[in-house]
Amino acid sequence: MRRPLFLLIVSVSAVALAAVTYRCLTPKLPPLVFLIGDSISEGYAPTVNRALRMAHVERQPERCRYTNCILRTIDIWIANSPRWRVVLFNSGYHDVRLRKDTGLVVTTIEDYASELKAIATKLRGHSDVVIFATTTPIPIANDPAFSERSIAYNAVARTAMKEIGVEVLDLYEIGARLGPEYREEPNDAHFTDPGYEILGQAAAGAIIRHLR
Question: DSSP characters for the chain?
């Protein structure tokens, strides 16, 4: 009568040992971090990659210039990737530009807010944490109206993300503290390598808190 009980105990122990062995022998995959953005994101991505050596960092396969572009392709990125631990995304610089053919803004401020929410909602379904990065400053001397629109769009983005509980990394505030020596040209929207290093460290700092 004791033999079946003995065999049951041995069987359970074998299963438990196999499970422990599997966990020990199976390599632990690094957390996945996904960056979405335009050329500014492309500029600071190498710094994020170096700073997050414990993670596997990727950017979207192609540069997306505005929110509608991201919405059109985001399902493809999701379908072709395992679940992400953290996604940091931005769109804004190209949204506030004026179309050459009509002179109208590329993305209206109302569409910008709703499309950001739609992007964040899709990302939440495939990632543990979603962070939105505000658009870095556009020098006023470059285009005063362009600069003013970017400030207004950032304000709308902060509100939209707050409404759905998405964390915001304020790269605008960080970029605003960088002088012209950190720009490729004094009135250029793009940064030098030291400028991108500062932005990248800020991005990595926001991400790493969710990897510990």
Answer: -HHHHHHHHHHHHHHHHHHHHHHHHSPPPPPEEEEE-SHHHHHHHHHHHHH-TTSEEEE-SS---SHHHHHHHHHHHHHTSPPEEEEEE---TTTTSBPTTT-SBSS-HHHHHHHHHHHHHHHHTTEEEEEEEPPPP--TTT-HHHHHHHHHHHHHHHHHHHHTT-EEE-HHHHHHTS-GGGBSSTT-SSB-HHHHHHHHHHHHHHHHTTT-
What pLDDT is recorded for position 94?
93
pLDDT at 3 over 60: no
Does position 105 have pLDDT exceeding 90, yes or no?
yes
Cα angle, residue 127 at apex, residues 126 and 130 outer, rounded to 5°:
125
Q: Tell me, what's the pLDDT at 186?
A: 82
Q: Mean pLDDT, to the nearest integer, of 123-145?
A: 90
Contact assessment for residue 206 and residue 87, using Cβ atoms and an 8 Å cutoff: no
The answer, yes or no, to whether residue 19 has pLDDT greater than 70, is no
| Contact status, residue 35 vs residue 22, Cβ threshold 8 Å | no
Q: Are 136 and 189 in contact (CB under 8 A)?
A: yes
